[in-house]
Amino acid sequence: MEGTKPRTASSIGMFDMLKGAGMLTIVFAHTAELYPMQAVSGLSLTAFFPFIYREALMSAFFIASGYGFRKRSIHKCIHQQLKSLLKPYAYTALFTCVLHFIIHYKTFQYLPGTIGESIKVTGGFLLGLPHTAKYFGQEFFSCGPMWYLLALMVGWVLLDVILNIFPERYVPWAVAGCVLLGWGASLVWELPFCLIQGAVVVPYLYIGFLAKKKHLLDEPLPPKVFAGLLAATALIAVGALATRTTDCISLAEWSLGPLSIFLDGAAGLLFIRLFMRLSRGHGPIVHFLEAVGRRSLNIFCVHTVEIIAIPWYLMVAKFSAQPVLGMWLQYAISLGSIWLVCELLRVRRALIIRFFPAQRRTPAVHYTSRH
Known about the structure:
The chain is an all-alpha fold. It has helices spanning about 15-30, 55-65, 75-110, 110-125, 145-165, 170-190, 195-200, 200-215, 225-245, 260-280, 285-295, 295-310, 310-320, 325-355; strands spanning about 135, 140.
C-alpha cells in the first residue's frame, strides 16, 4: 500500500525527526542552563549533564547537512551559501537588534544603557561572534544560535575548496588538517565570523557527503563499526566526567582536545542511525517531531530572537527560590512564542502565495505569424 513503504536513505525528510528532537533539546538546554542546580558531586544538573552530548547532537546536524552536499565550482558554492544562509542570518540579526532595543528600553527606561547593550548585540552579529568576546577594546555579545548558520556556511565552502583542490585519496588528510588548523587557531585567537567553528565542522560535513556517496546509511552497520561508534559515544561521557567540562563548538572548547571533535562525529553518526530507525514508525510522536524538524530553520531564527532580545535573567531572578518551576515555565513560554511566530510565518507565506501568485517566467520565443 502506498504510504506504508519504509523510508529509504535517499528520501526527502529522512532527517526531520532528528532535527525536530534536536530543536526541542536545544531550546530546553538553553533554558536549563540559566537555572543552575547543583548535583551531589558539585556538577550542575542543568548546566553540565544536559550538555555532555550537546556537540554530538550538533555534529549530527552537520552530518545531515553534508548528506545534501554536492561538489561544484568554488564560486557557485559561495554564491549558494550566501543566498541560502546569509539571508536568514541577516533578517534574524535585524529583528533581534530592533526588538532588543525596544524591549530593554521599555523595561528599564534608561536610554544610555539600552544603547550600550544594543551596540554589543549589533556588533556581535556584524562580527559573527559565536560567543561573547572583546574586539577593539569593546565587548560584544554572541550572535546566539546563529553561529550554526555561519559555521555551516564556512564549513560548506571549505569542504568544496578541499574537494576541488585535492585528489580524492588526499581529501581525508586535508579534512583532518582543516580540523587541526581550526582547533590550533582557537588556542591563540578568537576569530570572527565563526571561522574556527567552520573549520572544525568540515569532517562532519564530509561524513555526510561520504554517507550519501557510498550509501553508508542504506545498509546495517558492520558489528565492529557499530561497536566503535558505541565506544566513542561512551568515551565522550567519560571525558566530560573526568575533566568536568563538556565539549562546546561555539566556545571552541573540547574536553579531550581534537580527539573530542572526532568522537563527537562518531556519536553524531550513531544518533543519525538511531533516529532513522525510530522514524520508520508512524505514531503521533514521530509525526510531531517530523513536523518540528521541517520548521528547524525558522525555529533556529525565532529562538535566536527570543533568547537574545528578551531579558530572561529577570525571570531567573524572580524564580531563584523555585528554579525548577521557573525553568519549565520559561521553556513553555519559549516554545509557545516560537510556535506562534512560526505559524504566523506559515500563514504569511500561504497568503502571499494565494493573493500574489508568482508569475512563471517563460523563455522569450519568437513565433512567426501564420496566415
